[in-house]
Design brief:
Blueprint: H1 2-53, E1 71-78, E2 82-84, E3 90-92, H2 95-100, E4 108-114, E5 119-125, E6 129-139, E7 142-147, E8 150-153, H3 156-161, E9 169-175, E10 185-189
Antiparallel strand pairs: 1-2, 1-4, 2-3, 4-5, 6-7, 6-9, 7-8, 9-10
Length: 190
């Protein structure tokens, strides 16, 4: 009986060592995840601050309907990289705007071309979205997220904004009702 107690005691010590060694590894993974989430939140907060205060520190007041910007208004569809207007022309969308706004292929946009030649975009008709988890891959310098056996192209601005690397897991947004979509928006790095 004493022999069995000694063996059980040794087994308990081994199990305790195994559990203790797994514990710090889980804590390290959780800490890394929390730090990455905090960095993402901090980057989003900085962007919001810049949109409110501006780069030079002066407060930017939002425009009311009485401050409507004059110019030509064009509505179009986001194709993953540009806006396709009803006139068949492609209108360039800043990649950082498309990335941070998480524009999805098929979203309806309004472009106001101001009297002084400025372009102001506004999302007016988002398509239904679906979240999917995938892995970042790269082919010939172009970034894709492989998810569910399909590769979706993503903007380089999303790769740099979310600080993701080849092989990282990411959550992407794809159009719910467009199985032929080739572009996706990065929702978050995992």
């Amino acid at each position: 009986m004493l022999y069995i107690e000694v063996i059980l005691s040794k087994i308990d010590k081994r199990n305790a060592r195994t559990s203790m060694s797994e514990l710090p590894e889980k804590q390290v993974k959780r800490l890394r995840s929390l730090i990455q989430e905090a960095e993402t939140n901090l980057a989003a907060a900085k962007e919001l601050l810049i949109s409110v205060v501006g780069d030079d520190g002066t407060v930017v007041t939002p425009k009311t309907s009485s401050d409507e910007v004059g110019g030509k208004v064009i509505e179009g569809v986001f194709d993953g990289q540009m806006m396709l207007g009803p006139d068949g022309k492609n209108y360039p969308i800043p990649a950082n705007y498309a990335s941070k706004s998480k524009l999805v292929e098929g979203d309806i946009l309004k472009l106001t071309i101001t009297d002084d030649g400025g372009f102001i975009y506004k999302q007016i008709g988002p398509v239904e979205r679906r979240q999917v988890i995938g892995t970042l891959v790269q082919h010939n310098g172009t970034h894709y997220v492989e998810a569910g056996g399909k590769e979706y192209r993503i903007l380089l601005a999303s790769v740099t904004y979310f600080r993701i690397n080849i092989g990282d897991q990411v959550t992407i947004l794809i159009p719910e009702d467009n199985p032929d979509a080739t572009w996706a928006a990065v929702e978050a790095a995992l």
